Amino acid sequence: MSLRVAAVQTVLVESSLSGNKSATSYPxxxxxxxxxxxxxxxxxxxxxxxxxxTNGTEGNTLRETGLPIIVVTTLGVKSGKIRKIPLMRVEQGxxxxxxxSKGGAPAHPVWYYNLKDNSGPxxxxxxxxxxxxxxREISGDERATWWKRAVAAFPxxxxxxxxxxxxxxxxxxxxxx
Length: 177
Description:
It is built from five helices and nine strands, in the order αββαββββαββααβ. It is an alpha+beta fold. A hairpin with a 6-residue loop joins strand 3 and strand 4. Residues about 1-20 have low confidence and may be disordered.
């Protein structure tokens, strides 16, 4: 087990043992530093905790769909706190599409602004170890190509787009070198 994974597990175990569902320190050695603030949404909090506690062997699909997810770690643009979200796994050639669908709601998800307004790296965990990525929002032909991949990975995205007047944003996360 790597030191990085052990550090993540230590934070999670300490938090779980104390029954503390509030903010905890984020492990040293990670690209993002600061206080970790779990999601206010219970199922998101539970899925992230299960995924990280088991190094991605459990909690790695979206609820009852059986479709794979990744865990994305960002820095909150307003709070400055570490935030984590499970997103659908849309991967091609080592890059990931991060689709800000919010189920077709009229407004963007809050995490959209964390990606849009931050210039630093994010982390993606797709398996046992998080990796650093740079993120950019895409448009035009590039967005169209990645949108097709996203809909192939998670068909409800097409319904979400029909349900809303906004164009659902797509970001590409590329490995940091």
